[in-house]
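Question: Send over one sample?
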Amino acid sequence: MKHFYSYKILLIILFFFNINTIAKSQDFEISGFSLGMTLADKLATNEIAQGNYRKFYNSKYITTISFPKSTFFPDYDYTQFSFKKKDKKQKIINIEVVKNYKDNIAECFAKREKILNEIKEKYKKKIEFIDDIGTKPFNKSFGKKGTNTVTWIGLKGKKLVYVSCYNYAESETSSVDQFRMGVNNSYFEKMAFKK
């Protein structure tokens, strides 16, 4: 009888472990990271030390660290993570990646469509809305000329994913066309640009 109860307890533990694993595997990931993780979950201390702290957002609420292309982020030319300023554990609340496409915006658009289709297929049960903003000129406050083509996807759990292509005007000779993708939680959305 003891063996029966031990077996039953083991089955219950395995059941909850599998449910938890399945739930985590459905979290939206970029370069193996998802919201709520920490950098230390996947990177060694010396790798984290290669990042640069930035003040892109409201630094009263948000801390951001960025990484250039590296062996641990080989698919993108730039990767950044943001955290709540007062969170000592630094749980990720924003991830953004950038891939450069010098004079090749068509390849960027092809990557954008491929990624969008993959997201729609993989996360279709978690999608709450899809907002195709379309192509619009850069906001004047951006300080450069060009267009941005972006799609926002709202996922359950108050997560916003965006997939976009930045097509800089030919007059912007110092700028390279870019694929950008990111995921934010609701805290980041609310506080990153708070005045």
